[in-house]
Amino acid sequence: MKDTLYCIGSVLLSLLLALVSLRYITHVWLLAFVYSFQIHFALVAIAGCLVLLILRRHWYAYVLLSIAAMLLGHGVIMLREFEAPPARAETPPLFRLMSFNIEHENVSNAARIADFIIASNADVVNILEAAPLRPHIARLSGTYPYHIGCGAETNECDTLVLSKRPFVDKKVSSLGELWRNRLTRSAIDFDGTKVNFLAAHLAKPYFDDFQTDELVDLRSAAGAIDGPLVLAGDFNSAIADPHIQRLMRRAGFHSVFPEPATWPIRAGRLGIGIDHVLARPPLRLKSVERIEDNMGSNHFGLMAEFAVDG
After folding, report:
1. 200-253 tens-digit pLDDT
2. What is the pLDDT of residue 136?
3. Is there a contact between 45 and 13 (Cβ–Cβ < 8 Å)?
4. Residues 259-289: b if buried by 16+ CB within 10 A, e if exposed
5. Any alpha helices (H) in the chain, and if so which ranges?
6. Is 197 helix (H, G, I), strand (E, B) or coil?
7. Taking every pair of C-alpha atoms in the chain, what is the biggest distance, in angstroms?
8. Dihedral angle at the C-alpha atoms of 247, 248, 253, 254, nearest 10 degrees?
9. Rounded CA gap, 243 and 266, in Å?
10. Cβ-contact 279, 230 below 8 angstroms
11. Which of 13, 53, 160, 243 has the fewest CB atoms in 10 Å of its CB?
12. In which region does residue 7 sit, left (phi positive, over 0), alpha (psi from -120 to 50) or beta (all else)?
């Protein structure tokens, strides 16, 4: 019986590790979900290998354990690769930003979300799948008199950008060919420092190669902008995904480590970060924290503070 269980477990773990390891050979969009969960699957594989060794001390279980440990270690290295030294503790934050995918069907919590935004003390707010907030735009305008989306620049309400300060520049455009008007570009002057913002909502990575095309457009948009730049939004992929890593390297973005887990909701802090707040020097991230109340959304929101290098 033990030998049978050992053989079945070995086959299943071998398949799991092979799927995770495919990222080092080729990119298969059907496995993008697996790539984002590399650390989680590596931990599962390590636990499985330990069970195999309890059943039978065989060399093959040690080989699987070694592979799983290497995948785990490289997963952590990938997440730490883009960590930048934070701004000095004594440096006051230049501005505060909220980014939150509130889910387009979350109508029953829209008023509560609007109240939270008003009370958040954020200078800039990015709301994804913002349609539930359309009836509350007038009330939000009392605190955030400037906005993009939901009738301003575009009538579509997937991406809504709210600001307490006027926009120096603003533009709405599309990413790829799947969805329209999911990229918002803006610039705001903070006491003499012009900061550029990109708010993006990417397709799910297992929708064929649509996300790959969107990331090419996003990289081009970031490359066309000079000066301090913030990129925030729902990427539907973790930074461990190979295509997200390519964007980070080529566009020069930094993140925090560890990133707060924003999905799935039921996993809590054991989930993954598919919603990101990224900065390009001379901007520095002072902090990125998760908004603990998801307010009916299938994502957790993020709150970030930024400073500028002297």
Report:
1. 999 988 777 889 899 999 999 999 999 999 999 999 999 999 999 999 999 999
2. 96
3. yes
4. bbbbbeeeeeeebbbbbbbbbbeebbbbebe
5. 2-21, 32-36, 38-55, 59-80, 110-119, 137-140, 210-223, 242-251
6. strand
7. 73
8. 160
9. 26
10. yes
11. 53
12. alpha
Query: Alpha-carbon distance 304 to 254, whole Å?
Result: 13
Give the pTM: 0.93
Name the token pair of 47: 């636990």
Q: Give CATH 3.60.10.10 domain extents, the chain.
A: 95-308
Both tokens of residue 131?
Answer: 């349609």
Q: How far is CA 97 from CA 77, 133, 163, 302, in A?
A: 27, 18, 9, 8
- Residue 206's identity, in one-letter code, is Y
Distance between CA 244 and CA 207 in Å, rounded? Answer: 15
How far is the CA of 276 from the CAs of 98, 238, 239, in angstroms?
11, 8, 9
- Tokens representing 251 are 């566009």
Of 183, 176, 179, 212, the closest CA to residue 197 belongs to: 183
